[in-house]
Structure formats: structure tokens, C-alpha cells
Design goal:
With 240 residues, the protein is α+β, with helices and mostly antiparallel strands. The chain is 27% helix and 39% strand. It is elongated.
């Protein structure tokens, strides 16, 4: 699975009287950064209508390359900091194309494993909601149909009172393009998972094999896959 290029902008404002120092320092920082391993792009721009403002556009092959760049010889930048008016402001960016990119099978498998691990671990609600669409949601369980985050939160809380020591073992996963087109980048996922848990009221272990149909799409918020449709097609009790 290909790792996404990291893209950032960094905005600074230079104090009056430090014009020559700004040109010299930013030129040197740019030249040095372009020789660092993993540098894809590193360019300072001056704002035409506000010449004391500068914006850096930088791209790195990985977080490790970026960390190495930031840790290497910071003296030049540190001596320049007093020439700045206010704190630099860094903004991470992502390509719009990521919002329409169909996730590959490896990404979907990783998503499914992580989703079930979070359910097994009873992760905080906020962690689960990061995997669930905020709009257009349909999650169909034998006991309830959920259409928004609030309903998912209520369902998740109730499951936590009914069962403990849950375990989800992913048995099968098949990924296909969305059958009816769907949103840009959407895929349909056929999932089989074995669920085991202790029924709190009875103190006994229970197990079932669930066959599910999902639809995933790239999240507008993060570009990562998110669940927009989740249907439990069948639930077969099995030996514990």
C-alpha cells in the first residue's frame, strides 16, 4: 500500500527592518531542505500584495523524512525567529483527489481489522465515530437501524451493558467496486466475522458468525475510508 506524500504550508510574517535577513535565510533554508532525503517539494513564496508575508509549500515522502529534516541543524532557523512577527502557522493539506480515490484491498482489510479490534477493545466512542460517516449513514443490525452518530452512540453504549469480553475474528472479506456507482471512491465489502462475548445478565459465553455487507467511501473530513452502509445479513449461532 503506497504511503501518501505529506503536504504542508507554513505561513510567517517578517518584521520591518529584517528584509535582507529574510531573503538570505529563507533562500538558505530552501536550498538545504531540497538536499534532504525524502524532500518532494520545498519552496518559499512571498505574498505579492503583502510583501512581509511568506508561505512555504513543502512535501515529504514520509513522516520519518519530515522528522529527520526538522531535527537536522536547526540553528539557522532559530537565529531567524526574532525577525518574525508572531508565531509561524503550519497547515497540513491533502490532495482533493484523495477524496475520490477508491481504497485498495489492502487498505480495506486494514480498515476492517482495525474496526473490529476497536469494537473488541471497547474503544472510546470518539475513536469509533472516526470510522462512521456523519451523513447518509445506514447501519442495520438485528436489533436496530442506525442513521446518525447519535443513534450509533446509544447503540454502542447499550451493547456495552449487555456484553463484556467481546472478541471479533475476521474470517472473510471481499472488496468490489460499488455496485450502483455510489459516491466517488466507494467500494462494497462482503464481510464474515465471528463474534464471541459474555452475556452479562446470564454470565455465559455466546458466539455467532455474522455475514455483513458494507459500503465504504473516502471521508470528506480525512480522506480515509469510512462506513456509510453496514448491514448484518445473517447471524448464525455457533459453538463457543
Amino acid at each position: 500500500m503506497e504511503e501518501a506524500v505529506l503536504t504542508f504550508t507554513l505561513d510567517i510574517t517578517v518584521r520591518t527592518g529584517h528584509e535582507t535577513e529574510a531573503i538570505r535565510t529563507l533562500t538558505a533554508v530552501e536550498a538545504k531542505a531540497r538536499t534532504d532525503a525524502g524532500c518532494v517539494q520545498f519552496t518559499w513564496f512571498q505574498h505579492v500584495q503583502d510583501p512581509y508575508r511568506f508561505t512555504l509549500v513543502e512535501q515529504w515522502e514520509s513522516q520519518e523524512h519530515l522528522d529527520a529534516h526538522l531535527a537536522a541543524d536547526p540553528a539557522l532557523w532559530e537565529t531567524f525567529v526574532p525577525a518574525l512577527a508572531g508565531e509561524p502557522r503550519s497547515t497540513p493539506l491533502r490532495p482533493v483527489a484523495d477524496l475520490a480515490r477508491t481504497p485498495d484491498e489492502g487498505t480495506v482489510r486494514d480498515f476492517a481489522r482495525t474496526w473490529f479490534d476497536r469494537l473488541s477493545d471497547r474503544a472510546p466512542l470518539e475513536e469509533l465515530l472516526a470510522y462512521v460517516a456523519a451523513d447518509g449513514l445506514e447501519m442495520v443490525f438485528p436489533e436496530a437501524t442506525l442513521t446518525d452518530h447519535q443513534e450509533f452512540a446509544a447503540w454502542y453504549a447499550e451493547v456495552g451493558t449487555l456484553f463484556r469480553d467481546q472478541k471479533h475474528d475476521l474470517e472473510r472479506i471481499e472488496v468490489t467496486p460499488a455496485a450502483d456507482g455510489g459516491a466517488e471512491g466507494a467500494v462494497d465489502v462482503d464481510v464474515t466475522v465471528v463474534w464471541r462475548a459474555t452475556v452479562v445478565a446470564e454470565g455465559r459465553r455466546s458466539a455467532a458468525r455474522a455475514r455483513q455487507s458494507w459500503r465504504l467511501r473516502p471521508s470528506f473530513r480525512t480522506g480515509a475510508p469510512e462506513i456509510v452502509r453496514y448491514r448484518v445479513r445473517s447471524l448464525e449461532e455457533i459453538a463457543v
